[in-house]
Design goal:
The protein is α/β, with parallel strands linked by helices and 428 residues long. The protein is built from 18 helices and 15 strands. The strands form four sheets. It has a six-stranded mixed beta sheet with strand order 2-1-5-4-3-15. A five-stranded parallel beta sheet has the order 7-8-11-6-12. A hairpin with a 2-residue loop joins strand 3 and strand 4. Helix 12 crosses helix 14 and helix 16 crosses helix 17. The longest helix has 19 residues. The radius of gyration is 29 Å and the shape is elongated. It starts with a helix and ends with a helix.
């Protein structure tokens, strides 16, 4: 077997082993390759489609692949709903020969239908069910609650915007503590004032510190890695013996509050925090949103409803393409950015007069390109008409509660004609 034959066999094995649907067409649009997942996703066997024009089966996909071939540019993360209830994300690229001449195109389509369905189920809680503390990563809820309830000092590490302060506030509220939640921003209080601010002052005139104000409550030390080494050492000593002395005083004061702190990502913590202070805390890393895709539906619902409630509106629903867009975005600004995006979406949906948020109503950085947007300018009028007819039939079926006889009457066609068109448009 020659080298080219071996490489062809390896490539065939690789494409066949993929968990995504793979299609390869030649320069004339004839299907050259159609893998097992494509068969399962679309219910079309390789024997039925290989050698035939892709446009005979999928007109929009055909147009997109020819656009990719002609432009020589790949497209990524294109959303499409090829038939009701099926949602895919498409990556497509041109195939060229050694001289760079286009000889075909390929597409890789990931079926995200199960994610969209699961997201919709998570988004719609049963009526009356309380919203969970959504800022919590699912895996951390119980461990953090347990550590806090035992009174152990807690240190939350993570990127900006991951919700460390919100987590500390929720732990304080849910613990039933009778005292206050007191926050000290270690990076903003001048170094010379921080000791008195934290421990209080005892002299001719006594002044309470944040530790006194937080008695029977919680002291939250934001950005403790910004503390000078001397302050870190003193704080570590206080946590070790659960006692402290006020500035200018000699009396030992018992620590009467829970202590929670926050730092940046834990990866480089050794360079920013003394070992004595690091080991005085129980350290937990709060993951960024890009690693918490399963929490996004609930977080979106929380932020949408908060923003809508503040505006006196009913919270809009995220449509499947918006769900897919939210999942595809990495959210480098974490919860802060997601909250801002949902506030934007509420305003956009209100301006459009709809009770739903589509991908187009998200901020530009979070939007997905849809296959419809890519192909609409080149789509024949007949296909537009067919899509309108399918949407109309789907709407009448929904309004009729699935009663086909009633839907046929509303459409002004016979029941037999309705059955035929339902099969034609994949609405069965």
């Amino acid at each position: 077997m020659g080298k080219s034959e071996i490489m062809e066999a390896v490539l065939g094995g690789l494409l066949g082993a993929m968990n995504d649907a793979v299609t390869v067409i030649d320069s004339e649009g004839a299907v050259m390759y159609w893998n097992r997942v494509a068969e399962e996703t679309y219910g079309i066997t390789g024997d039925d489609i290989i050698g035939r024009k892709i446009g005979d089966f999928f007109q929009r996909e055909s147009i997109m692949l020819f656009q990719v071939m002609e432009s020589g540019r790949a497209v990524h993360q294109v959303y499409h709903e090829p038939r009701p209830g099926v949602h895919v994300m498409i990556n497509a690229a041109p195939v060229t020969d050694a001289s760079g001449k286009p000889i075909g195109a390929l597409s890789i389509e990931r079926d995200i239908s199960s994610y969209v369905r699961l997201s919709a189920e998570m988004y719609h809680h049963p009526e009356g069910q309380p919203l969970l503390p959504a800022v919590f990563p699912s895996a951390l809820r119980e461990p953090l609650r347990t550590v806090f309830s035992l009174g152990q000092p807690l240190l939350l590490a993570g990127e900006a915007g991951v919700g460390r302060t919100s987590i500390a506030e929720w732990l304080h509220r849910s613990s039933g503590r009778t005292g206050r939640f007191v926050m000290v921003s270690c990076s903003t209080v001048p170094e010379g004032m921080l000791e008195a601010e934290l421990f209080g002052y005892q002299g001719v005139e006594e002044r309470a510190g944040k530790l006194d104000l937080a008695a029977e409550g919680t002291l939250y030390l934001k950005d403790i890695d910004a503390l000078a080494p001397s302050m870190q050492e003193r704080l570590a000593g206080m946590l070790r013996v659960s006692r402290y002395e006020r500035l200018g005083g000699t009396a030992s004061v018992p620590l009467q509050c829970r202590v929670c702190g926050s730092v940046g990502p834990a990866a480089d913590l050794k360079e920013r925090l003394l070992p004595s202070l690091r080991y005085a805390f129980q350290l937990y890393e709060v993951p960024p949103l890009r690693d918490r895709k399963q929490d996004l539906p609930e977080l979106c619902r929380l932020f949408l409803h908060r923003a809508a409630s503040q505006a006196g509106l009913t919270g809009p629903e995220l449509m499947p393409d918006a769900m897919a867009a939210v999942s595809a975005c990495d959210w480098p600004g974490n919860l802060t950015q997601l909250r801002n995006a949902m506030e934007y979406a509420v305003a956009a949906a209100a301006a459009a007069g709809t009770g739903a948020v589509t991908s187009a109503q998200l901020p530009e950085y979070a939007r997905l390109t849809t296959l419809n947007e890519l192909t609409d300018p080149d789509l024949p009028l007949s296909v537009h008409s067919g899509e309108w007819e399918r949407a109309r039939i789907a709407e009448m079926l929904e309004r009729a509660g699935g009663n086909k006889a009633k839907a046929a009457r509303m459409l002004g066609i016979s029941r037999g004609a309705l059955y035929y068109k339902m099969r034609q448009y994949g609405l069965e």
